[in-house]
């Protein structure tokens, strides 16, 4: 996911989005924790000390349902605590995997600060590569899909002295319960098209890099989007096609204002893992992605007229998107 104006939900590191709060609230973020997120009867404790000072708080609730986490008792632990509450039988998560997971995050005192269950969809984030908090990287790499894992992350493995105001104070110990769902595809697999790119659109690179957004070269001397929505596929995949009935796509995207090429968003910089994004919730996407197939890279120029009236001053020069469609729902 993505952090929206006025939205205090923690997101993957370096996340920031300038689009409507409602529009992207359910996207990756969820992971809402950079990096970062299961039932009362634990199968075991990775740190081997349930009864030690700062033991992980109790957790109740069945797998695949939102867990309830008790508040921590006494002083929080100074070391990472990891407890497998329910071990799954799926493959082990490896470094670099795009893990799709449901999770709840709360402070040691029991105050909840993030909850993918309330957004009604799991989040996807890349593990083991520094894209999430260190506590998640250390706790979840090597765990099996289908597992429910409790994590107690001390400040130095979470957000440190700075915290994530206003929801996470500095020097906070964080508690997560994470349900490991599945490994998601992380890059597109299409091929560049033979035709030249549309001169009315910025030039976008056709190089596919796992952890980096494509470059966008804004046209010189042109600082306003064309009046109409323009969309072009520059890398064409052969997967499922986006239609009028498509509800969401799993995608990475980068976005810039036409005027000055100001960077608005870049999901590659926010965790590296593609997110499930409802196509109707970002201006221009529903029509601009129509006909694109999974595996494709689509460039869209969205004029200010496509945005809600209250946002048009913010996007008055229009926005260009480069969208890598990894999967179509």
From TrEMBL:
Coiled coil: none annotated. Keywords: Isomerase, Rotamase. Residues 1-23, 43-81, 187-236 are annotated as: Disordered. Transmembrane segments: none annotated. InterPro entries: PPIase_dom_sf (IPR046357), PPIase_FKBP_dom (IPR001179). The keyword Zinc-finger does not apply. It catalyses: [protein]-peptidylproline (omega=180) = [protein]-peptidylproline (omega=0). It comes from the Bacteria. Residues 9-18 have a biased composition (Polar residues). Residues 65-81 have a biased composition (Basic and acidic residues). Its EC number is 5.2.1.8. Pfam families: FKBP_C (PF00254). GO terms for molecular function: peptidyl-prolyl cis-trans isomerase activity. Residues 96-184, 246-303 form the PPIase FKBP-type domain. The keyword Isomerase applies. Belongs to the FKBP-type PPIase family. PANTHER family: 39 KDA FK506-BINDING NUCLEAR PROTEIN, FKBP-TYPE PEPTIDYL-PROLYL CIS-TRANS ISOMERASE FKPA. This is peptidylprolyl isomerase. It comes from Streptomyces cacaoi.
